Amino acid sequence: MYVFPLQSLMLSERACVYSMLINIMETREAELKGLGADFVFGFVQSMDGERDPRNLLLAFQIAKNLIHRGYELGKFTEELFEVTSCYFPIDFSP
């Protein structure tokens, strides 16, 4: 599976990608769940290294959706935890 290097994009472009993922999760959930743990792997790889607070808010929303909506995390459960837990505690005022 090819994983696009999301962190090579500009900040605003990364925000668009995260927003598109949120939209797809809301409108095409069955198709994404059909990808199985590969979708989770792709998201973890894409989020890894994100530093912009606004993009992190979007990425955390995606991570929350993965867990609450029952996506198959498979062997990437620990990776999802690691990629999100390294940002805590968060102190951000927009």
Task: Please provide a written account of the structure.
The chain has helices at residues 11-27, 29-34, 37-47, 53-68, 77-85. The protein has 94 residues and is mainly α. The chain has one domain. It is globular. The N and C termini lie far apart (36 Å).
> In percent terms, what proportion of residues is strand?
under 5%
The count of domains is 1
Radius of gyration over all CA atoms, rounded: 13 Å
Distance between the termini: 36 Å
DSSP strand tally? 0
Low-pLDDT sequence parts: none
Question: What overall geometry do the principal axes of the alpha carbons give?
Answer: globular
Order of helices and strands: HHHHH
What share of the residues lie within helices?
A: 55-70%
The structure class reads mainly alpha
The largest pleated sheet is described as: none
Q: How much is the average pLDDT?
A: 90
Tally of helical segments: 5
